[in-house]
Structures are given as C-alpha cells and as structure tokens.
Design a protein that fits this description.
Elements: H1 13-20, H2 27-42, E1 47-56, H3 88-100, E2 105-110, H4 116-132, E3 143-147, H5 153-161, E4 166-168, H6 176-182, H7 189-201, E5 205-208, E6 211-212, H8 219-231, E7 236-241, H9 249-255, H10 264-282, E8 286-289, H11 291-296, H12 300-306, E9 311-312, H13 338-351, E10 356-357, H14 365-369
Parallel strand pairs: 1-2, 1-9, 1-10, 2-3, 3-4, 4-5, 5-7, 6-7, 7-8
Helix pairs in contact: 1-8, 2-10, 3-4, 8-10
The structure holds S-adenosylmethionine.
Length: 370
C-alpha cells in the first residue's frame, strides 16, 4: 500500500482493513507521518479548540454501554447517580469562560430528551449565548456545536435558527447487527440515520463517529464506518475507544455480553489508526482527539493529534458535576476544574508540536468548500 499506487483519498475496503490491522508500510509511525502530512495540506497544523460543556445527564435513551443511560442508578463509586441540569446562568458562565480563554467555539452536550421544556430551554440558551458572546473577533458570537442526540427535524430547525451551526451525533457503529446489540429495540439504527439526514437538511455542519473496539466489531466493520462517514459527507468526526461503562451501567454491559474483550492498549492503537485512516480518506474534515483516548493513556489525546486529529475539546463543565457525567470508567478530568482543563490544553498541543488556533470558529475547510 503506497501513495504511488493509491490515488489521493481513494482506498478500497481491503486497503483500509490492512491499514487498521497495522500493515501500513513502515508501521504506525509512518502512518502517523502520512496522516499528519495530509492534515497539514488540507486543514493546516493548527489545533482548533471547543470548550466542552456537559449541561445535563438526564437521558431517555438506554444505550447498554453508557454510564448516564436512563436505567443507570449508581456512579462509579457505588453512590446513587445524581441527575443534574445546569441552569441557564451556569451555561452562560461556561460560555464566558470559553470567550475569555480565546476559544472561538463551544460544544454543548447532554443526555437525550425530547420533551418540550428541554427543547425550549436549549433554544433559549443558544439565543442567549449568541447575544452575549459577540466580540470584534467573533461578530456572530461563539461558534456552537450541539450534541443532544436524536431529535425531530423541527427541533433541529429550531436549534439551528437559534444559533447552533454544528451538530455531533455519533452513529456509534454503522453495522446494523452490532448497533442492535448495543441498543434496546426502541432505539433503531434507522432513526439515527434519519436524524443525521435531517441535520444536514436543516443546514448543520454534521459530525459523526463510532466507538472503536466493541466486542464483535471487525476491522472490516471499521473500514465500512469510514466509508459511511464519506457517504454521508460528514464535516467532522469525533470517535474514540469503547470503554467499560461507569457505575451500574457496567453491570448491564456485562449482562449483555458487551464488556470490552481486547486490551486498552489494543483499543488505543486501533483508535489511532482509525483517526489516521479517516484523515487519509476524508482529508479536509475536522477530527477530534476525543477525551476517551485519554482514559486509556495519559497522552491519549496528544497521540490522537499526532495521528492526524486537529480538534481538542477541553472540558469546561463545572467541577461539581463531572462525576455525574461519567460515561465510562476512567473518564479523565473528573476531579479537575474548568480552569485546570483550560490550562493543560496548550500543553497537550505543545506536546504534539502543534500551534493552537484562537478566536475563530474553526470550521472544517470541508464545510466551507460545499
Ligand atoms: N446524548 C447525546 C448522544 O447520544 O449523541 C450525547 C451524549 S452521549 C453520552 C455522547 C457519546 O458518549 C456517545 O455518542 C458515545 O459514543 C459515548 N460513550 C458513551 N458510553 C461510552 C463508552 N462506554 N465507551 C466509549 N464511549 C462512550
């Protein structure tokens, strides 16, 4: 497999599989170097920042792998799982912090709810953030990525009109059989796919991604996932390793036969190859070095940058709520404060020898070219 025989960006499923199995000529270091070159050519070396604010852990979904699933009762330390909602003021505080630190963007994430009060609340918060974060550098306020799961097309329209312009909704896996093993029957893959289509139709820049190292997931599945990203013309990718769920959700994972069955080191390696492979195929999209990488290695996110990722999402969720948003075991930064996460972010970029981009939305060139 080499660039002399593989035209730019076109890989067959078999070639991607080989790559994911670690058979890139020259090994993973050469793969990282190649991905990084493509990244430099297509999106630049700069790391783009989004402050990640997790504003509620209430969820109506029951994904078997997730620590904040509807049926979750206890946290990682066996204590009852406290469900929380940040107030509008607390969310605005997070937005101001992002602004102060020169982040041009933030990501608002929460569990999934489709009730009217929640939708109204999110819409109102988006409008206030937009009104209150206009600066000379950001004449349209902070860039906002929203990640609140599957919603109706009308809801997506309301969120877009209120000022969110990017949306992150992972497909988790594009293999229908695997998706069905990970989710209860009332959460079909078709609805997820419809939601991704609706987001695009309403004007969002669409981000998706998968979990890597799910039991039963093959390198062929992962290669197909990358083709799926291309098929839906994704603008951003956020993906990371599959990890043992936190708290009582771990027991459900066990009941469903879904505990990870490969080592953390293997899942990390596979995740890094997925980042590189996605960069080689999709080229000019934004790819996040996801927080979950750091659950498997203290330098996981830095390694993600070295394999072609170009987005970091420092957590700005208030310290007091972090333990209650523990999706999986070993989620990093649960003991830290927003300030601490902010101060360690430039260090991560520097470790990967990368400059940081401040005061801009940092949209993917892919989205701008459409
Ligand atoms: N409710 C929104 C949604 O479903 O898109 C956003 C919140 S959801 C908790 C965010 C992401 O966490 C999911 O898309 C999933 O990939 C990830 N996640 C949850 N449990 C995980 C686990 N055990 N290992 C790795 N990632 C996990």
């Amino acid at each position: 497999m080499s660039d002399t025989i593989v035209p730019r960006g076109t890989f067959s499923l078999e070639e991607l599989e080989e790559l994911l199995l670690g058979r890139w000529p020259g090994g993973d270091a050469a793969l990282a170097a190649r991905a990084r070159q493509v990244m430099a050519d297509e999106v630049g070396e700069e790391v783009r920042l989004r402050g990640l604010l997790e504003f509620s852990n209430r969820c109506t979904s029951d994904c078997y792998y997730c620590g904040i699933r509807r049926s979750s009762r206890s946290d990682d330390q066996g204590a009852p799982l406290v469900r929380f909602d940040l107030s509008e003021e607390a969310i605005l505080e997070g937005a101001r912090l992002c602004l102060q630190e020169g982040y041009g963007s933030m990501t608002l994430q929460a569990g999934e709810r489709r009730d009217r009060p929640f939708i109204d609340f999110v819409e109102g918060v988006l409008r206030r953030i937009k009104e209150e974060t206009v600066t000379p550098d950001l004449p349209r306020g902070l860039g906002i990525t929203l990640s609140v799961g599957e919603q109706t097309r009308e809801t997506y329209r309301r969120f877009f009109d209120a000022g969110a312009h990017r949306y992150l909704l992972r497909v988790e896996t594009s293999n229908p059989r695997l998706f069905a093993r990970l989710h209860p029957p009332e959460q079909p893959l078709e609805r997820r796919l419809q939601a991704l289509e609706d987001l695009r139709a309403e004007g969002f820049q669409v981000g998706t991604g998968v979990m890597i190292g799910i039991p039963g997931q093959t390198s062929r599945d992962l290669a197909r996932d990358i083709m799926f990203f291309r098929e839906i013309d994704a603008d951003m990718i956020g993906m990371g390793p599959y990890i043992e769920a936190a708290g009582s959700a771990r027991e459900e994972m066990h009941r469903q036969g879904l505990l990870p069955d490969t080592s953390g080191a293997e899942r990390l390696r596979l995740s890094l190859r997925m980042i590189a492979a996605t960069r080689l195929v999709l080229r000019d999209v934004n790819i996040a070095a996801a927080t979950a990488l750091q659950a498997l290695s203290p330098t996981g996110r830095e390694q993600g940058l070295a394999f072609g990722a170009n987005v970091l999402m420092p957590i700005v969720t208030p310290g007091g709520q972090r333990r209650a948003y523990q999706l999986y075991q070993g989620k990093p930064c649960v003991e830290e404060t927003a300030r601490e996460c902010i101060s360690c972010t430039p260090r991560r970029a520097a470790w990967a020898r990368r400059p940081v981009s401040y005061h801009s939305w940092g949209d993917a060139p892919h989205a701008r070219r459409k």
